[in-house]
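Late entry, written up from scratch paper. The run itself happened at the end of the previous shift, but nothing got recorded in the book at the time, so transcribing now.
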Amino acid sequence: MVAVGGIPSNSKCVVLVLQGEDGCFMRLNSICGGKTTLNPNPTLQAAATPPFLTLQHSSRSLSMDDETEARNGSRGDDYNEKKKKKRKQRTAPEIEVMDIEDFDPDETRKIRASLLEWYDLNKRDLPWRTPSTATHEDGDNRAYGVWVSEVMLQQTRVETVIDYYNRWMKKWPTLHHLSLASLEEVNEMWAGLGYYRRARFLLEGAKMIAEGKCGFPRTASALREVPGIGNYTAGAIASIAFKEAVPVVDGNVVRVIARLKAISSNPKHSATIKNIWRLAGQLVDPCKPGDFNQALMELGATICTPLNPRCCACPVSGQCSALSISKSSRSISVTDYPVKVVKAKKRLDFSAVSVVKILEDRDISKGSQHNGRFLLVKRPNEGLLAGLWEFPSVLLDRETDGATRRTAIDLFLKSFKLDTKKNCHIVSREDVGECIHVFTHIHLTMYVELLVLQLKGGFEISDEKKQETVTWKWIDREALSSMGLTSGVRKVYNMIQKKVALKPHPRQDKKNKSKKLKDS
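Output as recorded:
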């Protein structure tokens, strides 16, 4: 049996991981005050956890012993069974990191100098990276630009964000301009970026700051009081716009630091995240905090990538523990850090979507179904895609047949005073096909139909109506085509466009039939 980690001299409580000849790991739960317990853990296999440093230690008091023992097997069989099931669902080992070694001063100086020099030579030319100026007003505008860009960049590629950012800043160049906008205008501009709650928080935050008397918050702690601004965004704004020496931690930073320190614990674990924030704080350059934070993120985005890191081009490869370990062991790669965690399975949802098109008398008299107006429904102001417009849709319990879907849609359409037995009749109704849309946690299958209705005499539709539970509006084809739609709704509309494009115009179809009769 060999020790995978060592024991630091300043530890009061130690968790030591040992690897046996059979490939299994055993945990030496504690070496505290002469008390030692050994806990075999067959679920931590060598195949899942390479034999790199997994020693975790804590400078906490000895009262942690009881909690450690309880965590490792003294809560009864039911508790242990639950823990075993939970372990099987993860790739990352169930070892909690209590502490990680700090960067030493010499190491910190080298990383700062190398990274800043590399960033000055290699940083990408992005519209939100404008030099900060000395005036208070320009500082606020800089902070606003950083805020917008950082919110857009969450879960979105840089290449996609550039056009959105430029359009946004052209429409709302300052925080004051944004504060006067409506949520619908903001959602329209945001359409296609996803995670629409970000846009709502951005607007709410802008209104809150504009209505206040203190101007734009200039410290990370004050920024965290603004709706939608968390630790990451607060750190980015404070360091880049106001030169406060605070860290930022996004996915890129987690990856870089995990490799620099060869951190083998679960990167999603709260204790690991806390330690990475602490380490990022140690590295921040006090003279150029904004540039350093951007350099660290830039390094993760362009060099220290998840699958194909270019270690030969990395400015801090000399300080990278993961690279050093990989050179001494063929079984270990830089990409083993951070540890991969199995993602939760997406929930499977199903919905019936009806693209409802209304033809009025003038459309029928012209023999055209290419005119008319479409029904759009506004989603509730809370929950998924809050406050956004979509075609009428009904969430289904499971996969269902066409008849069941149509029954559900017909019942829903009565909410908009559309009843095929009373005030309108069906001109055509056909299934268009299935459309798949994937959210972060949901895999949605939409069954799409095109329903063309003709209003009966005396019944009219208005542009927009509201009831206690639902808001809807009618919109013509031209306005719908230019409207900012969510990517899911856009997919459905494109399906309809293709379907209609394959059909001949009614007048042209009539001419073709007449020609066939003459030819015959």
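The CA atoms of residues 12 and 61 lie 7 Å apart.
(Scratch paper discarded after transcription.)
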